[in-house]
Design brief:
Layout (H helix, E strand, L loop, with lengths): L24 H30 L1 H4 L1 E2 L15 E7 L5 E8 L10 E5 L3 E2 L5 H8 L4 E6 L13 H17 L8 E7 L1 H11 L6 E6 L3 H6 L9 H4 L7 H5 L5 E4 L6 H14 L15
Parallel strand pairs: 1-5, 4-6, 4-7, 7-8, 8-9
Antiparallel strand pairs: 2-3, 3-6
Helix pairs in contact: 4-5
């Protein structure tokens, strides 16, 4: 009887211990480079955003004042709070300066100050204008003087100028065709904007108007690392609006201390304010 052939025992191969995976150094360098690049892009975009929101500080330099002056070079005036917001709280503070002598009855200058300092810095100019015999309404934009605290910008200041015009026509009942905007510096741009929006404005006065504020922004060292032309919006346009504005304008380059200053303004007002009649003395006729 044949013996059964014993089965050969088959051993299964034992799995070798797993080896740790290695990281490709090239992939690691690429990952670090991509992470650093994304961080730089995010940082640059954040820088651009900060500049976009705070660029007003390059062209506008407001200052605050706690107390209003007692007089305008001896002339009395009335402190006005106007321009209420949604909560009915006035946002703007202005000065109503009545004329010492009425050369221009029922007319008023709407004084739009520059973007530097506050209305208190315009006292010499306001004093010279007061001597011309016309009522004056001057005010501080939001963020300036005693008006509400905020960051000023072109949009807010444009709205504030229109609020002042509305105050004169509604609360003061000054005829719309007898309000002359007087703008200094960036205030000249606001005066032109008012005249473009209100065709009834008979004329406007532009005192040392500021133009090409983009060039001013380029001189600031904070603007060298960003695409300024794409981000800059506080430009207070003047040249382009003037091209299409037919409203009579007086451009001033002399200061209030110059004798020709008052003569230029009175001659301009005499010509363009409706209803003005000049009173001249005549020598007696010889008999």
């Amino acid at each position: 009887m044949a013996r059964p052939t014993p089965k050969s025992s088959k051993r299964r191969p034992q799995p070798s211990p797993s080896q740790p995976e290695t990281v490709d150094p090239i992939w690691l360098v690429k990952a670090i480079a991509i992470t650093a690049g994304v961080a730089l892009i995010c940082g640059y975009l954040a820088l651009c955003l900060l500049f976009y929101q705070g660029q007003w500080q390059i062209v506008l330099h407001p200052s605050r004042t706690d107390d209003a002056p007692k007089s305008i070079n001896g002339a009395p005036y009335q402190l006005i709070h106007f321009g209420p917001d949604e909560s009915a709280i006035p946002q703007l503070t202005g000065w109503w300066i009545p004329a010492a002598h009425s050369r221009y009855t029922n007319a008023a200058l709407l004084f739009l100050p520059s973007g530097d300092g506050s209305l208190a810095d315009s006292l010499p100019t306001l004093s010279a204008l007061h001597s011309l015999g016309i009522d004056i309404f001057a005010f501080d934009y939001r963020g300036y003087g005693q008006s509400v605290r905020t960051h000023p910008n072109q949009q807010k200041m444009t709205h504030d100028a229109d609020s002042a015009w509305q105050y004169l026509t509604s609360s003061r009942a000054v005829p719309a065709n007898q309000i002359i905007p007087y703008g200094i510096g960036v205030g000249a741009s606001l005066a032109v904007h008012l005249a473009a929006d209100h065709a009834t404005i008979p004329a406007l006065i532009l005192d040392h108007p500021h133009t090409d504020l983009l060039a001013t922004a380029r001189r600031d060292p904070r603007s060298r690392l960003i695409p300024l032309s794409l981000l800059f919006h506080e430009n207070f346009p003047l040249a382009e609006p003037l091209k299409s504005l037919s409203t009579p304008k007086l451009l001033l380059s002399s200061t209030a201390s110059n004798p020709s200053y008052g003569q230029s303004i009175t001659g301009f007002l005499d010509q363009h304010l409706p209803g003005v009649r000049l009173v001249t003395s005549r020598a007696p006729t010889p008999k």
